[in-house]
Amino acid sequence: MENKNLDKQNLRQVILDFPKQFKIGLELAKDMKIAGDFRSVVVSGMGGSAWPVDILKDYLKNSGVEELEIIQNRNYSLPKKAYTNSINFFSSYSGDTEEPVASLEEAIKNNLPLIVFTYGGKHLELAKKNNLPCIIIPQCVQPRYATGYFFGAMLQVLINLGLTKDASSDILEYSNKLAENTINLEKKGQELAKKLVGQTPIIYASDRYGAVGMVIKIKINEDAKTPAFWNVYPELNHNEMVGFTLPQGKFHVLTFMDKDDNPRIIKRMQLTAELYKTKGIETDIIEMEGDSLFTKIFSSLILGDWIAYYLALEYGQDPVLVEMVEDFKKLL
Asked: Among 74, 91, 62, which Cα is nearest to 258's?
């Protein structure tokens, strides 16, 4: 199989270059600041423009920034919290996703404090027409591969507003370490992808890394065009695992484990793998790589990118295209 015949937009190089996005994202927002006494952030966005916020929330919460409330809005209208001491972020790479467009129009109508994060489309048009603060995200093959830009830019804005400590220098150092390890992660991802062929992937992680599991699951859906699912410990031990008493298909579990996680969580992961094996379900327990929360999160996400990428190639799929989503939008 010739990868170039399937990977027509050179997604492999996009993944290799991913660690560079953080520096660019931070720089894009270095001068972005809005006056106000903000105590929470409301972020309106969908799909690949929304999950950088899930990752950011996990990163900040597990870095000790629990007092900052970040509310995600995946609806056509703003939550009540958007009207009270909140800075509103509107995140849409394409700029044309209808749910955040509707919420942005509501915010403009009510003169709410806001910042737009977009590459173009209706969001950019509204930002220019209404002279709104706007951060233009660089072009990328798909929104789901612009995560570093969104993460870096949003984090820098929160730093500028005094809502979190300035960790930008650490982020730059850690992203350099990610770049050094990306090729090693590629080999590991390719090997794992081969194990998943013909099976439904299930991604597990501890609750503190829930966003990691969710994003990897989505990347497999969109790249490899195949079902995948995710869940978190310890909750899954109280319900989901019972469903594998009588598995109705072929499943393979990838468990992302932080060696510094709660020892009881690690024991749960190990015991669950043993029980699943008796039902014919294999589990790979993957130790998250890195010496910081940031590197553990993003090395796992890069590994997930490689898994999704090579699984797509195994199935003879273009890893970039999402034709079913585009067809659905036309029907809608």
From this structure: 62
DSSP for 233-271 reads: ETGGGGTGGGGGGS--S-EEEEEEE-TTS-HHHHHHHHH
Instruction: Dump the DSSP string for 145-205.
Output: G-HHHHHHHHHHHHHHTTSS---HHHHHHHHHHHHHHHHHHHHHHHHHHHHHTTSEEEEEE
DSSP secondary structure code for residue 120 in this structure: S
pLDDT at position 2: 44
Phi (first) and psi of residue 92, to 5 degrees: -150, 110
Q: Answer whether the bond into residue 263 is a cis peptide, omega within 30°.
A: no
Residue carrying structure tokens 């093959």: 141
DSSP 143: G
Domains and CATH numbers, the chain: 31-166 (3.40.50.10490), 181-314 (3.40.50.10490)
Q: pTM for the whole thing?
A: 0.95
Mean pLDDT for back-to-back runs of 10 residues, the chain (332 residues): 76 96 97 93 95 94 87 96 96 95 98 97 97 96 93 97 94 96 97 98 97 97 97 98 96 98 98 97 97 96 98 96 78 78
| Calpha distance 268→234 (Å, rounded) | 7
310's CB contacts (< 8 A; 6+ apart) are: 189, 190, 193, 194
Number of neighbours of residue 159 by Cβ within 10 angstroms: 18
- Residue 131: both structure tokens together: 């002279």
